[in-house]
Structures are given as structure tokens and as C-alpha cells.
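Quick one: structure for this chain?
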Amino acid sequence: MNWLTNFVRPKLRSLVGKDVPENLWQKCPGCEQMLFHRELVDNLHVCRHCGHHLRLDPFQRLELLMDPKYTLVPLPKSVDDPLKFKDLKKYSERLKDSRHKLKQDDALIIANGTMGGHPVVMAVFDFRFMGGSMGMTVGSGLIKAAELAIKNKAAYVVVPSSGGARMQEGILSLMQMPRTTIAVRLIKEATLPYITLLTDPTTGGVSASFAMLGDISIAEPGATIGFAGARVIKETIREQLPAGFQTAEYLLEHGMVDMVIPRSELRDKMISMLSIIFKKNAPKKR
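Got it. Here's what it folds into:
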């Protein structure tokens, strides 16, 4: 980055006569090439050099998949910091900081609308909010979204991006695993489609509960999907792990996900699935 900050930015400043924003370039986590932000947006945050799928925030995800004019559904209210937890910092302060920075209540965004004209309720995780961890508010939000899908006779689409259960809520966060599993069962009892789109990363208590229960399980290319981290597993079993272990492609090869779909094809293929499920003709592209 030194050549950008020490040479390119001063040259641009001298040409345009004003300050140049800091975030014009982003390094690809896959190949470490520098990507111009406008080009990255045009390519749906996929590296044009190596095809690495960079993470999206929930609103970018909704813009990519949902039809326009969807509505956001507020999360249920839960008790903040029920255990009065503190490590290097109070949990209440961590919540306050994340809420102030992201202008949202927690690590889940719920949207009610359509995808290709088909009714959909979508619950999208935000990894920026404490690693997308699942506590009581997120668990209750997933249940609320499931109930809304049943009420609207809509498909239920969940897009996890999470490090797992929220350690600051202890056993209360672990209780969200059976709660969200029950929410999935309610959807299936209502004979409505439950689709999971596994993004980077999907791990811990999230992968061990609702995330792996989809009627259709889709993953983005290169996404890390698993329970414990590869290093922890390797140290526990004291064996060399297979190449590509815990990647979307490895799970596809071993039957753990149904398909791996590039981001540019996601919306069209999901609409085709919904058209088959709801037995309607696939609408035209936007």
C-alpha cells in the first residue's frame, strides 16, 4: 500500500486540487491484487483477477437478490447484557459501539418482499456486527422471520455470515440453536420452502443449527463453512486435514451442500428454483 499512499494519492491531489478519499482501492483477500472500488462494485464485489468473493453487507445482499421496494422488519426486543458480561470490555459497551457504528440493533436484518415476483422473507446476517454472532435477539429475529413467512405463505431464505453463538450471552446464546431449529421445523410443517445461502464464513453454533437444514443449501464460491476452526480440529485429532477442507467446494463434493453458485448467477438461479417450487413461470429479468 505504500506506493498508493506515498506516490499515487499525492499525485492525484496535485491534479484535482482536493483531498482524495482513503477507500478508493481495496486489496483482494485471495490474490492480494489492488481493486478499484468502482470496478469492484460493478463486479458485485468479486475479484476480477482470481474470482474471490468478498463479503457483502446485508443491504448489498438484499439489493442483489430481492426485488425493489422490499420492507425491513424490526427485530424483537431482548434483554441487553443479561449476564453482565465483561472481558477486556463490557458487553454492553460492545453492543453500544456496534449499534452506533452500523445504525442497527443487532447482527440480523429481516426483509419482507419478493424475488422475481415470488413472496420471500429473507433474514441476512451482518458479520460486521460482532462477527455476526447469534445471541437472543438474533435467535428471536429468525423465529419472527419464520412466523412472517408462514403468515405470508412465502419462501424463507436465510443468509448466514457468522462466527457462531455469541459468547457474551453464554448458555442463553446456545439456547438459540434449538430455538432456530424449531423455527425451521415450523416452516417445513407449513410446506413452505426453506433455502439457505451459506456465505463466508458460516461456522460455530450457526452452522450446527439452522444453517445446515435448508431444503436447498446453496453456497458462494470459496466460502468457509464448518463448525470449529481448522487449526483447532487439526490440533485435536493430530492429523493432516484434506486440502480445501471447510470450503464450499469441498462440502459440495462430499454432499453437504446442494450447489455452489457464483454471485453473478445467484438471483436468476434462485428465481428459477422458486418458480419451480411455486409452479409459476419464471419472471423476466430486471
